[in-house]
Write a structure and sequence with these properties.
Blueprint lengths: L2 H43 L1 H21 L9 H19 L5 H15 L2 H8 L1
Length: 126
């Protein structure tokens, strides 16, 4: 038994626990910021256009999440987001809608949180 290896393992676990605690403390603030950015996008686009784009985003996020669940394909969050953005851009182009896809990223994050009910969990921490 190597005491140095055991000590390194303990220190690593303690540091990970501290990091997770710090991140969870900031999560509600990040959620609030994302929510505000989404609301700003809604005001900028108008209700009809915003709802149209929101439906496209919901479909894209759902499809990307499902795509990542197959046994043959394992993709991470960044790859799922890239797939969703690509689909969204294609749909926007097909509809002739000109929207900064960078702003759509906030809507993607909001949709992911809502799909997993994480938005409710973060609201209770505020």
């Amino acid at each position: 038994m190597n005491i140095q290896v055991d000590l390194t393992d303990v220190v690593s676990k303690v540091l990970i626990t501290i990091l997770l605690a710090v991140l969870s403390a900031f999560a509600p603030m990040v959620w609030q910021w994302v929510r505000v950015k989404t609301q700003e996008l809604g005001q900028e686009l108008g209700e009809r256009r915003f709802n149209q784009i929101r439906n496209i985003v919901k479909a894209a996020v759902f499809a990307a999440e499902q795509y990542g669940l197959t046994d043959d394909i394992k993709i991470n969050g960044a790859e799922k987001k890239s797939l969703a953005l690509s689909y969204i851009q294609d749909q926007l182009d097909a509809l002739g809608l000109k929207v900064d896809v960078g702003k759509i990223a906030y809507l993607i994050e909001t949709t992911v949180l809502e799909q997993f009910n994480l938005d409710k969990a973060l609201e209770t921490k505020e």
